[in-house]
Amino acid sequence: MPTTTFRGRVRSACEVLFRATLLVFLALAAALVTTQLAGVVLLRPGWVSWASDALVTPSITAAVAFGLTGFISGYVTPAADGER
């Protein structure tokens, strides 16, 4: 059984968090844009307003979490040969 170092576990956790926050951000942003586009096409201004009111703040929060996770994982993951 291979032994996993603390650094390896942190690296794996950062990778999982990076992917998860990316997927959450993309899902929220896609829902926002799709709902607003449907509201414009179907002439439902309430949909556009609702999507903006309900989904903008969570989308921005998810984007910030994604950015911070990417920034932190840049310090945790080792650089490939010749990158530094």
Strand content: under 5%
Please compute the radius of gyration using only Cα atoms: 19 Å
Query: Which stretches are low in confidence, meaning pLDDT under 50 for 5 or more residues running?
Result: none
**What would you call the quaternary organization?**
single chain
Encode the helix/strand succession as letters: HH
Mean pLDDT: 89
Binned, the helix content reads: over 70%
Structure notes:
The protein is mainly α. It has a domain at 21-75. It has two helices and no strands. The longest helix has 36 residues, at 6-41. The chain starts with 5 loop residues before the first helix and ends in an 8-residue tail after the last helix.
Brief characterization of the structure:
The chain is mostly helical. Helices cover 81% and strands 0% of the residues.
Fold blueprint:
Elements: H1 6-41, H2 45-76
Helix pairs in contact: 1-2
Which characteristics define this entry?
single chain; mainly alpha; 84 residues
